Amino acid sequence: MPTALWIANVHVTDEDAYKEYASRATGAIADHGGVFLARAGKHEQLEGRDRARNVVARFPSLQAAHDCYHSDAYQKALDFARGASERDLVIVEEAAP
């Protein structure tokens, strides 16, 4: 089964609330087998909208990433990000090697 990437591009507008989101979301992501590959490191914007925070997590499957997003724990964490950030989030199935 192919793994999947959760890719988020974020502009944070309320640092304190977003820190609470990140703290809570980390556990929910780990509970669904998610592992962070990139988390707000240096980046180079080549096209499109530049957002300072970019996050990539790998999940064991597209379904696991989907289930994480829709889980009660993640939705409770997401309450802290709403109004504290502008976000784009996509789940992408990885190609087989």
From TrEMBL:
<dbReference type="Pfam" id="PF07045">
    <property type="entry name" value="DUF1330"/>
</dbReference>
<feature type="domain" description="DUF1330">
    <location>
        <begin position="3"/>
        <end position="94"/>
    </location>
</feature>
<protein>
    <recommendedName>
        <fullName>DUF1330 domain-containing protein</fullName>
    </recommendedName>
</protein>
<dbReference type="InterPro" id="IPR011008">
    <property type="entry name" value="Dimeric_a/b-barrel"/>
</dbReference>
<dbReference type="InterPro" id="IPR010753">
    <property type="entry name" value="DUF1330"/>
</dbReference>
